[in-house]
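STRUCTURE:
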């Protein structure tokens, strides 16, 4: 299998290999332009950025890389933000939002002293395209037909939505969980390796996974998706919501546990949340940005004639608006992580915030 030659374009290679590489680059420009954009960003990144390939996903004669970029503090006790995009290959806007933030961050590193000072207090790890095979094929699942968000070893505690909550019938149907006896898919194992290397022992860490889905409003989802009872760190989520609303009172996000919509098997972030918080004295909050695609469809109904139109803004000015809209949210998360000691609830506040969170999100749950 031929590997993509990324970030090192000046190596001397045989003519036959150069022809194959040229063909592969043309295919990427056509089917996976986000990868080309990412490789250009990483190739031009300043020395303060470290980059690596966590794994490669085989697809025909390609080996598509899962890139990782790290910037910020190297201290083992520094708070961490993990940004993830492209878990669902159809939801390209998720990767594009992460890439928009990464491009902005790399540009600011060249001139913004205050941004550099912030990065001395926090570490950012970015996985912009977790499912490159699915994005290349323009499908929700990975090349094996597995929905990566239904693939973790965790089972819903109550009845889940038919098919939507995860099914084991066939990879030809959507929301296929995969074979539990085979373990998680390679893409999820790559993500798990990053999480287990990066997060344990940190006083505070936060993940933001960027998706799009049917809805009229942008939503911030948090665990759980496998049960309707509140997570143990629900007071910290409420505290984060409150400082966001105090700083940005005119925001347009709806904060909710995913269980308010439906239960699922195999939710990736439920699994990582339970694994990290079980053995860690610190706080780990995994969040999902679920961009409401019905907004874009309502304004341009003919998007429904294209598969990508279900999940992505196709009109250029709306696409640009989405890319810039969420930069404020990600920058807020950076500041919140760096200053987590100032807003995470102390013991005397935690019970009060937990009670408020239960009344706000769970009082109508069965």
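SEQUENCE:
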């Amino acid at each position: 299998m031929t590997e993509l030659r990324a970030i090192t374009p000046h190596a001397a290679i045989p003519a036959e290999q150069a022809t194959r590489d040229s063909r592969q680059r043309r295919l990427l420009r056509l089917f996976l332009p986000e990868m080309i954009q990412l490789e250009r960003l990483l190739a031009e990144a300043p020395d303060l950025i470290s980059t690596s390939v966590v794994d490669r996903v085989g697809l025909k004669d390609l080996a598509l890389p899962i890139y990782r970029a790290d910037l910020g503090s190297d201290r083992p006790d520094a708070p961490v933000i993990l940004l993830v995009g492209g878990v669902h290959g159809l939801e390209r806007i998720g990767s594009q939002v992460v890439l928009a933030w990464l491009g902005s961050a790399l540009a600011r590193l060249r001139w913004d002293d205050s941004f550099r000072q912030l990065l001395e207090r926090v570490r950012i790890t970015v996985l912009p395209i977790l499912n490159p095979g699915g994005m290349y094929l323009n499908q929700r699942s990975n090349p094996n037909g597995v929905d990566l968000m239904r693939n973790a070893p965790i089972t819903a505690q109550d009845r889940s939505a038919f098919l939507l909550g995860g099914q084991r019938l066939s990879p030809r149907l959507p929301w296929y969980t995969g074979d539990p006896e085979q373990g998680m898919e390679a893409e999820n194992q790559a993500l798990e390796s990053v999480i287990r290397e990066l997060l344990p022992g940190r006083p505070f860490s936060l993940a933001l996974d960027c998706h799009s889905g049917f809805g009229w409003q942008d939503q911030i989802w948090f665990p759980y998706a496998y049960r309707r009872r509140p997570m143990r760190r629900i007071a910290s989520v409420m505290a984060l919501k409150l400082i966001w609303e105090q700083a940005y009172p005119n925001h347009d996000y709806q904060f909710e546990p995913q269980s308010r919509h439906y239960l699922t098997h195999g939710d990736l972030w439920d699994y990582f949340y339970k694994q990290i918080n079980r053995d860690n004295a610190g706080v780990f909050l995994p969040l999902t940005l679920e961009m409401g695609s019905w907004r874009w469809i309502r304004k341009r109904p003919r998007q429904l004639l294209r598969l990508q139109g279900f999940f992505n803004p196709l009109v250029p000015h709306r696409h640009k608006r989405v890319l810039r809209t969420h930069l404020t949210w990600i920058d807020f998360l950076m500041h919140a992580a760096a200053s987590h000691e100032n807003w995470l609830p102390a013991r005397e506040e935690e019970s009060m915030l937990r009670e408020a969170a239960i009344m706000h999100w769970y009082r109508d749950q069965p």
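REMARK: The domain at 33-361 is CATH 3.40.630.10 (Aminopeptidase).
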